[in-house]
């Protein structure tokens, strides 16, 4: 498996100029949007329903877990970056498993321990994970710093932060302690189901794209766009943190 297929394809600094444009747009958006819109929180209907029910409700929690993953654009961007240059199912399985172990661990521990972390800061770190993976795909780290980070370790570590993001969502639900553990396990199962569904769709699209000549032509630009989106997410969430202050 080639770690950096784009290392010699183009000058990464060109992509950085495009990121600057994205950051400027992010700043303008942060000034124009209301504070509540700066974090992708729990839908009002879902939160109200979960707050009202008591006891074991496996299916609703599994549904919410799957829904959060499938609609979680930050998680999907990271997964896209992770599998972008992975061609063998064995390699994909290893990286996806590391990511799943990471976010499952901190999801369970975070909720059971009641660890409250600012959702804005967690989501900013998730945005950073998107930036990291895009830069890794571009071969930026060996060229800039002469060092190649361990991509497997990084995937696990960022998985831990993604799990804290999920735990923050559960804590936002203010779930009843009655039946908490089975409901939490159901939510985690739903997250894994949602991840498999999203990953399957991404793999189908990537497999088709890789068979065309446009993949080689546009792989670099695509990773620059993903990197820009990661910076945008970081700025978006940091603006929310400093404006809302929580």
If you had to describe this structure to a student in words, what would you say it looks like?
The protein has 246 residues and is mainly α. It has one domain (12-244). It contains 10 helices and no strands. The longest helix has 31 residues, at 180-210. The chain starts with 11 loop residues before the first helix and ends with a helix. Residues 7-16 and 19-40 have low confidence and may be disordered.
Give a short summary of the structure.
The chain has 246 residues and is an all-alpha fold. The protein has helices spanning 12-32, 44-52, 58-70, 73-83, 89-113, 119-137, 140-145, 151-173, 180-210, 214-244.
- What structural class do you assign from the helix and strand content? mainly alpha
Strand content: under 5%
Structural Rg: 19 Å
Largest sheet: none
How many helices? The count is 10
Cα end-to-end separation: 42 Å
- Which whole number gives the mean pLDDT? 79
User: What oligomeric arrangement do these chains adopt?
Assistant: single chain
């Amino acid at each position: 498996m080639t770690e950096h297929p784009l290392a010699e394809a183009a000058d990464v600094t060109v992509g950085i100029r495009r990121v600057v444009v994205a950051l400027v747009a992010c700043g303008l958006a942060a000034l124009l949007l209301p504070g509540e819109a700066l974090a992708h929180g729990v839908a009002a209907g879902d939160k109200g329903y979960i707050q009202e029910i008591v006891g074991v409700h496996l299916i609703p929690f599994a549904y919410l877990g799957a829904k959060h993953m499938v609609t979680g654009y930050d998680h999907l961007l990271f997964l896209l970056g992770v599998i972008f240059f992975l061609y063998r199912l064995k390699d994909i399985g290893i990286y996806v498993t590391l990511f799943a172990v990471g976010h499952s661990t901190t999801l369970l521990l975070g909720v059971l321990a009641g660890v409250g972390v600012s959702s804005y800061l967690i989501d900013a770190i998730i945005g950073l994970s998107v930036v990291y993976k895009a830069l890794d795909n571009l071969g930026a780290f060996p060229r800039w710093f002469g060092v190649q980070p361990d991509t497997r370790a990084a995937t696990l570590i960022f998985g831990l932060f993604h799990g804290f993001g999920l735990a923050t969502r559960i804590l936002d639900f203010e779930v009843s302690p009655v039946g908490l553990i089975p409901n939490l396990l159901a939510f985690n199962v739903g997250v894994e189901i949602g991840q498999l569904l999203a990953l399957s769709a991404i793999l189908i699209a990537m497999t088709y794209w890789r068979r065309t000549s446009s993949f080689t032509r546009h792989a670099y630009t695509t990773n620059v766009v993903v990197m820009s989106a990661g910076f945008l997410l970081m700025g978006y969430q940091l603006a929310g943190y400093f404006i809302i202050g929580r």
